[in-house]
Amino acid sequence: MSLERFINQAVSSWMSEEGPDSDIVLSSRIRLARNFEDIKFPTLFSHEEAQSIILKMEEILRDSNFTKFGQMELLKIDELQPLQKRVLVEKHLISPNLAEDSPYGAVLLTENEEVSIMINEEDHIRIQCLFPGLQLAEALEAANEADDWLESFIHFGFDEKHGYLTSCPTNVGTGLRASVMMHLPGLMLTQQISRIIPAINQLGLVVRGIYGEGSEALGNIFQISNQITLGKSEEDICRDLKGVVSQLISQERSAREALRKTSNIQLEDRVFRSYGVLSNCRIIETKEAAKCLSDVRLGIDMGFIDHLPKNILNELMILTQPGFLQQYAGGHLRPDERDIRRAALIRERLKMEQEK
Amino acid sequence: MICQECNQRPAALHFTKIINGEKTEVNLCEKCAQEKGEMFMINGGSGFTFNNLLAGLLNIDPSVQKQNQNTFHQEEILQCNGCSMTFPQFIKVGRFGCAHCYETFKEQLPPVLRRLHSGNWSHSGKIPKRIGGGIHLKKQIESLKNDLKDLIQQEEFEKAAMIRDEIRTLEKDLPGSHKGGE
After folding, report:
1. What confidence tier does B177 reach under pLDDT thresholds 50, 70, 90?
2. Which alpha helices (DSSP H) does chain B contain, by range?
3. Which residue from A151, A169, A176 is facing B129, i.e. has the nearest CB?
4. CB 3.0 to 4.6 Å from A120: which of A9, A104, A161, A191, for a disulfide?
């Protein structure tokens, strides 16, 4: 398969399209947790109960003509190859938890991959919407539409006082987790991030690395999400998160301006060194690749590099993950082989742009 | 003192970690501390899941424990009839067994929820359509009343009067309402 075709197939809309403030905000995500009223939660449910949920979802998919998000497809986790699962995780379409620890897991995917509905993860149903740029309100609207659609077939566990009932009490109420993925190299370079993260935590928001809980901030990419799901409306949760994100955006912009004023040549040097590494390397690890991609993306945003598209960071960050590399290679690769493949893929991708 | 990471530069950051009663002293130079800093902040408790933390939190919370003991005395062990989960079990795993647990343990829940959700313990977001008009109306009236208060404070009396009329009309539709029945 040619790289170009592979990329076209591999890239979801949130990676390739540009959204509002997409120089800093890579994507916005909304997740709603829902459960069947009369079935035990996935930590305790029986084989039959788990199957009945999947059957019900298949039935809904077959009988309803809900076309808002285009064609939908149901994939069962135990029928997927380990590599396919990994690719879905790397594309943020399913959680690592669903891929690894959910024996009865399944996922409902839409054509453009903006909406995915995880089945039998920690909760029976988790609706997830992923949009490019800062579009929390838009993503919430899409998630609500998917929720209303399912609600017309399923009695979700709900009570007036506690709201939507979830397996873990941290999600009860709205069942909503809103998160925004941000590229913050300016705040990292000026070392402001270590002051900002504790401040954000105090506001009831959480900061994490690109692949969610417990992951490192690879390539200066941070994920910011709400912690509180109870006692606030969905709109307020999104508005509060958006408020903090907008602040971060302006902080990041002023950090970049300050860098331009105080150390323009050093910055340009850093950007082109990283570009040099990416376009010439023969072996490269994930961490170094992420760092260099972040530098190059910053160089594009600040106008040092003008022949590359902006989404190259989003795209290559995902495509150079182990699962994707192995998918592209068509089989299992040892870590050292991956590093060689990764270098080759990045070089080839950058060459594609030069030839344009 | 020399940095324990690189064994080259003098240590500038000294701190003591106590995890499960085990004490570890860490001495790092500025450079290594920065590199590790990311890890400390973002990867803080690797292998230590949220639910362990929650369980720890509930176990040391005296209000939960006291109520817990009370329930033992009053009616043996409180058990959910949907999934047979008991409150001590919930404390241990940090997750409920089914939707009915929320009803079963409703007496014990408020302190837990308040702690997890910054003092909140009651839902004020979306309501499923099937629940019927009652709750929807009540919540709508509540939020209008809040708007009304704000408007009066801002001395926007004309708008406030409109909201007041709207609340009155809505209250008429409320099932079981005796006020203004026609």
Report:
1. very low
2. 30-42, 50-60, 62-75, 87-93, 101-104, 109-116, 133-153, 157-173
3. A151
4. A104
SS3 A68: coil
pLDDT of residue A311: 82
Minimum CA–CA partner of A198 in chain B: B41
Cβ-based interface (< 8 Å): residues of B facing A = 37-39, 41-43, 45-46, 50-51, 54, 82-83, 85, 93-99, 102-103, 106, 109, 112-113, 116-131, 135
Q: Which two tokens stand for residue A88?
A: 């879905």
On chain B, the residues whose CB falls within 8 A of the CB of A35 are 99
Residue A38 sits at the chain B interface (C-beta within 8 Å): yes
**Minimal C-alpha gap between A271 and chain B (Å):** 21
Question: Residue A127, SS3?
Answer: strand
Give the max Cα distance, chain A.
65
The residue behind tokens 């040892």 is A334
B123/A160 Cβ within 8 A: yes
Question: Which residues have C-beta within 8 Å of that of residue A290, sequence separation ≥ 6?
Answer: A218, A219, A221, A317
CB pairs under 8 A between A and B: 141
DSSP conformation class of A103: T
pTM across the whole model: 0.77
Let me know the angle formed at the C-alpha of A222 by A275 and A170, rounded to the nearest 5 degrees: 160
Which residue on chain A is closest to B132 by alpha carbon? A160
Question: How many residues in chain B?
Answer: 182
Chain B residue with minimum CA distance to A44: B97
Cβ A218 vs Cβ A170: under 8 Å: no
pLDDT tens-digit series, residues B128-165: 887 766 777 777 788 888 888 888 888 888 888 888 88
For this complex, say whether ipTM is above 0.85.
no
Smallest Cα–Cα separation from A140: which of A65, A236, A220?
Answer: A236
CB A339 within 8 A of CB A288: no
